Amino acid sequence: MPNKAKCSLEAIIEVSRQLLSQFDLHIESLKNEDITENKTILATTTSKNLKQIPISDEQLLELVAYRESLIVTFFETYTQEQLEAQLVYINEMVLLDQQLILKSKSHKQALATRVLKLKKSKKVSNLYKKY
User: Under a CB-based contact definition with an 8 Å cutoff, are residues 90 and 9 in contact?
Assistant: First the structure.
């Protein structure tokens, strides 16, 4: 049984790392979009960007839901003793969870900033149209 618990935790950790990577890519793509909108230049593409392409918001939500289902299933399936045997992996999962919380807050802030900029630009264009 501990091997199954370990495999479950490894799957959760892998999905968590994928989410962290996707949050980084989404935040970077938002920054690049702001750069191209404000300065009308194309963002330079690095080899790292060629390897990883941000997934859509829907796919990101699906990945979050999948991770959540893995975690719920894990804690419903295994006993306290089995969990204690995998404490190292559980601690890693908790650290990744904390990182995900920070990244999601950062992503939310980046989106909020973008929405505010969009609203400002619409207000300016509406004022310009009046004159």
Answer: yes
**Mean pLDDT, rounded, for 33-46:** 47
Looking up tokens 């969870």 gives: 97
Find the distance separating the first CA and the last CA of the chain, reported in whole Å.
73
pLDDT band, residue 36 (cuts 50/70/90): low
In sequence order, which ranges of 40-86 are alpha helices (DSSP H)?
Answer: 47-51, 57-77, 80-85
Tokens 């960007």 belong to 49
CA distance 108 to 14: 23
pTM summary value: 0.70
23 Cβ contact list (under 8 Å, min separation 6): 100, 103, 104, 106, 107
18-39 burial by CB neighbour count: b if 16+ within 10 A, else e?
bbbebbebbbbebeeeeeeeee
